[in-house]
Amino acid sequence: MTGPSLSSQSAPSGRPQAERVTAALLDAALLTLAEEGFEAATVARLAARARTSKQAVYRRWPDKTSLVAASLRAALNRVSPPAPRRGNVAQDLRLYLSNLVEALQDTPLGRAIKSVSALKNQPQLAAVLQEAEDARRLALRQIFIATSFEADMETRIDLLLGLVYFKLHVRDQPVSPDDIEAAVHLVLGLTAPKSPAVNPHPGTGNTPDRAPVPFP
Amino acid sequence: MTGPSLSSQSAPSGRPQAERVTAALLDAALLTLAEEGFEAATVARLAARARTSKQAVYRRWPDKTSLVAASLRAALNRVSPPAPRRGNVAQDLRLYLSNLVEALQDTPLGRAIKSVSALKNQPQLAAVLQEAEDARRLALRQIFIATSFEADMETRIDLLLGLVYFKLHVRDQPVSPDDIEAAVHLVLGLTAPKSPAVNPHPGTGNTPDRAPVPFP
DNA sequence: CAATTACGGTACCAATAGTAACCGAATTTG
DNA sequence: CAAATTCGGTTACTATTGGTACCGTAATTG
Prior knowledge:
By secondary structure, chain A is mainly α. In chain A, 58% of the residues lie in helices and 0% in strands. Chain A contains nine helices and no strands.
């Protein structure tokens, strides 16, 4: 889409863009986002960090947001290969979620995404995040489909991805292997290893006068 | 904390601040945030919308972010009363989550929160969102505590709040009563009403050669 | 060589957060 | 009532930043 070269035709005459400069700008953007947040990522600073000029930015992207989006996209395309299907749903989910958490937690990419994750006003950023989200959904569907857990599949996916997003981006806390284990167990409706058998109706069981529930 | 009046002492001499102006500014901030996003909420525009001046803003708050945080706090303190405890966990959760979704979905408060939900760099904003989050957690703990669902309570809470947050703020989709129903059933480990009995190990069941799982 | 385009640098413009100065009016204290 | 004080609204100012324009130089095509 964004790429100028459609394979065919001759090279445009004139000095070609230096790939080194492009890469340095993408890198500077990702690292600055991760280390200092979106606010600190001014065009001048990104250019300086990449040891180039503002003009080099605007020759490649129409605006700052597009550069930021491109840096996220590049980093997303660099992350580790997909989790292999092993045939067991619980195992597949554990593996996929572990990989996902590993890619988003305590990595420049993860911090960068966190720093822009609510700037949905910027279509460029919204699009990148949407693409990544769609890919994760698709992956999880492939794990669930044609298994006995297909019922409420979309809700199960929302619960799992929501957990990761919530803990990492809202609560600013790490997602531990135990968290993943517990979530997978609950979402698959397996009897939790350490919890007693569930009791659908624990009686009106019984609320001693407790303080009113705060809201929201 | 922020309030100047600590009950005691005499009133400061001189003309008092007009409550009407303060309210108009808080209102203008919330509505502008909701309707046009954080980017569009310039101090000049907020002041104009409140039919007052920039100076009126800076007499009340040290900076723009503090005004925005105050407007969110005020709106959060205005929302409907807590969901009453009814003694049945599933019922309590449904009710609490319905109220939460109603307060955050298709309301100015909800849209305003969405527009600032990733500006964690601003301590003022992070604090308000954190307070709201803590209150919700506390409420859900009061529903779970002393029931047979206490095991993995924190993960169950993360799953439920994560689902709401994820659908509303990440996927930009509404949370329907059916969504809540399905989530509560899954998180409580109840047999889903429309799904067949869960099968903990659906065999290696069986992955026909499918495309590799995309990631992340 | 001539044409073209990138490179890095500087200068510039428009918008915005925040500050300062002003003056009339309101309110409290004495 | 008089003095002191603070508010209310207006205008002007500074500093920062996104984005544009122009410069002389370097690299590439023909």
